[in-house]
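batch_manifest entry 22 of 60
target: Poly(ethylene terephthalate) hydrolase
source organism: Acrocarpospora phusangensis
requested by: lab member K.T.
priority: normal
notes from requester: please return tokens only, no post-processing; we will run our own comparison against the previous entry in this batch. if the run fails, retry once and flag.
--- input ---
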Amino acid sequence: MHPTPLSRLTQLATRLTVVLVLAAATVAVASPAQAAGPYERGPDPTNTILTASRGPFATATASVSSLVSGFGGGTVYYPTDTSQGTFGAVAISPGYTARWSSLSWLGPRIASHGFVVIGIETDSVYDQPDSRGRQLLAALDYLVNDSSATVRNRIDRDRLAVAGHSMGGGGTLEAASSRPALQAAVPIAPWNLDKSWSEVRVPTLIVGGESDSIAPVSSHSEPFYSSISQAEKAYLELNNASHFFPQTTNTPLARQMVAWLKRFVDDDTRYDQFICPGPTRGGDTEEYRSTCPMS
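--- output ---
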């Protein structure tokens, strides 16, 4: 018996359905490889890479004169690689009475993961958080507009972040408040008389020390974190850490800071695994909270 025209149509429709299902399955399998973001830099992240003393990129440095406008000069650290496109940039402020040398280990550590970093000197070591916030933004403006071509040409001016210690951490919140276009902020053992940051829209990682007696987490880091309501946020409290934990090499800080910058400055979802669910309590970690961003 020969098939009727209707049965032929039914067979064709069945075959077409099978082809479409197989095509969809092929796309679904291939999609993870195709989903790589345009700003991903470096190899797939591992805990070993994040805890190493240097990341995968070689770096160089450049000095910034104290005669620049808006801040007190400093040091720039940048990847020497020119094959992977531009990089995000981060400005970092030291704390009250401190100079950049107190945090200088962070410069090459972060830059070696694919960022241009400027560690600033403040106009005065006694500058308050609001002034430090303005100086952080001035340093970013310097990087994208007035730094040497070698540095400037490596920077994506739309992917900028701020960080700082103590009053520099308070200044980080000030900068994030006044410039919501920033991609990330990392206040470290932050100190600020203002306890409410509900206006902040910048993804913010706050890192506090459990034994901090200068900026106790109960009156600084924790209320700062709780007050942020319009942005992705995380809070890492380091076990038994004093106010001065960032002034010597601190791998838990560096690990989480790099992961946060990679996730939000580079939009690199490969780093979600280090933020959500994030560090578990024990060892160096006293507590970790997060809004748990997911790709």
